[in-house]
Design a protein that fits this description.
about 25% helix; binds biotinyl-5-AMP; globular; 7-stranded mixed sheet
Length: about 280
């Protein structure tokens, strides 16, 4: 039996509802695309919250803004979770933080390495004193049909047992957990831990407990000069990274001491401005 097939995963799970409906695919286009198509199908309303689609290989794994997520077969965790939050709109910004925190807590537990979060949706570990990305998260939301309740699909890609030669050439340095921890890990144990933390954090959020303080504790580059690029006003702005607010927006303090909040974009180290 494959270690990520339904029967094996069900035995490892400790959740009440996330992952209890679970589908394993050896090869798909993208688990986000497949789950989205299933939710939008005529009988999509019957798909329970917590449904997980997991693939061993994706032909066209996606990141944000038409970027690709590359992962060779047999090495990674590539999965999507269906959530149906009936929360007020302001709380939807909590979901990316909840997903990142769930991965961070699970990885620390299973791999014993210190885990950081890079705004907005990357999970990182240190290799040779520098942060490297081992996980990316893609949240997509929609309403299945007019008047029906909305859904959010949380797509999570984790580099687990990738050999160094298979690391993708990426915008930000990439690594995998085997390389960071020094030994291969059980993908099944890690999946069960991520889904367990996801359920716990989701339920806490549903009770009104915001995740931003725990998220901010792991936020990398706080107090450093960074640049934020991306859609929207303030593109290309640089300043000191001052944290995130309750809805997960990045706070940047510019040279004049003004604080700017970003809901989307990418952040990179910039260095302080030249002395006048
Ligand atoms: C992300 O986007 O990091 C979100 C990735 C989400 C992937 C999961 S896998 C399951 C589900 N199904 C999908 O189709 N997607 C989700 P973004 O922040 O835009 O980063 C994308 C960038 O990360 C790429 O342009 C590369 O530079 C880099 N990259 C690609 N593959 C990588 C990998 N395996 N490890 C580290 N970096 C990678």
């Amino acid at each position: 039996m494959h270690e990520l097939e339904a029967t094996a995963v069900q035995q490892a799970l400790q959740t009440a509802w996330i992952g209890r409906a679970y589908h394993y695919f050896p090869r798909v286009t993208s688990t986000n695309d497949l789950l989205k198509a299933a939710v939008n199908a005529p009988d999509g309303a019957t798909l329970p919250a917590g449904t997980v689609y997991l693939a061993d290989f994706q032909e066209s794994g996606r990141g944000r803004l038409a970027r690709r997520w590359e992962a060779p077969p047999g090495t990674s965790l590539l999965f999507s979770v269906l959530l149906r939050p009936d929360w007020e709109a302001e709380r939807l910004g909590w979901l990316p933080m909840i997903a990142g925190l769930a991965v961070a807590r699970a990885v620390e537990e299973v791999a014993g390495v210190v885990v950081g979060l890079k705004w907005p949706n990357d999970v990182v570990v240190q290799v040779d004193g520098r942060w490297h990305k081992f996980c990316g998260i893609l949240l997509e939301s929609g309403a299945a049909r007019a008047m029906s309740s909305s859904y959010v699909i949380a797509g999570i890609g984790i580099n687990v047992n990738l050999p160094a030669a298979d690391l993708p050439a990426a915008r930000f340095p990439a690594t995998g957990l085997m390389l960071a921890a020094g030994a291969p890990l059980s993908r099944r144990a890690l999946l069960a831990a991520v889904l367990g933390h996801l359920e716990a954090l989701y339920e806490a959020a549903a009770q009104g407990q915001p995740p931003h303080a725990a998220w901010r504790e792991r936020l990398i580059w706080q107090g450093e000069w960074v640049a934020v690029s991306g859609p929207g006003p303030g593109e290309g702005l640089h300043g000191v990274l001052a944290g995130v607010d309750e809805s997960g927006r990045l706070l940047l303090r510019d040279e004049d001491g003004r604080v700017h909040a970003f809901a989307a974009g990418d952040v990179s180290l910039h260095g302080p401005p030249p002395e006048p």
